[in-house]
Amino acid sequence: MNRSMPWLMVAVLSLAVVANCVFIVRETERAVLLEFGRLKVADIQPGIHVKIPFVNEVRKFDARILTVDVRPEPFLTLEKKVVMVDSFIKWKVDNVETYYKATNGEEARVETLLSQRVNEGLRNQFGERTLDQVVSDERDQLMNVLIASLDKSVGEEIGINVIDVRVKQIELPSDVSESVYNRMRAEREREAREHRSLGRELAEGIRAAADRDKVVIESEAYRQSETLRGEGDAEAAAIYAKAYEQDPEFYAFLRSLQAYRESFASGSNLLLIGPEGDFFRYLDNKKGGK
Known about the structure:
The chain is an alpha+beta fold. Helices cover 57% and strands 22% of the residues. It has a three-stranded antiparallel beta sheet with strand order 3-2-5, with helices on one face. Strands 6-7-8 form a three-stranded antiparallel beta sheet, with helices on one face. Strands 1-4 form a two-stranded antiparallel sheet. α3 packs antiparallel against α5 and α6 (174-246) packs across α7. The longest helix has 73 residues, at 174-246.
């Protein structure tokens, strides 16, 4: 047992030396190799690597996309209205050597710097726009301008890539909110009145056109009806005349019967006419003569 102890200690020491000589860089990491505290190898690729114990030191950084929640800050718009803006930043390490030299690999320093830069950029962008513009579709344009400017500056300075900057929420002080809501309500009511006025104007135009069409249609119908009535009367007169020419006496007899029927249709009519009158000529003469 005593003779195996030295070998066991040698094996443990050997394992410790080997463990200190080998290091692993994962796919989600970026790393640099230091020699006596000075940068020797930048941006070590993922895999298994060897180092010299007590001489080399490995610093690893998260290579994934990271998020910085920026503390809400008050900004002034173009019309000098105060808004509380809550935003966040998406970023990742791009140039490992620049990143390590600028920040010593400390994420807290990056977050502080990014928060300051974003707040400064948002303050400038909000100061050039009205409240309606920063809460409308122009906010996307504002963010794109800020992302491009921020990515260029911090990329050269600390070696990171700014993926995205977004505003989570824009809040107004209570007094400002009330005035803004009142103005928005008044604007919507004005638009509603304009739409109603336009609707009434269109309705009047439609009614006037319908009335005009109605008059035209009725006039045309009346003209056609009068024409047809005149043609019918003319045809009826022609038929009467033709019938009269064939047998005038018989025609006169039929007209007298028709007159009798219409005169005594109610059964209570009373006529005071002499029997020698022309009205009763066919009733007075059995032969139907005068």
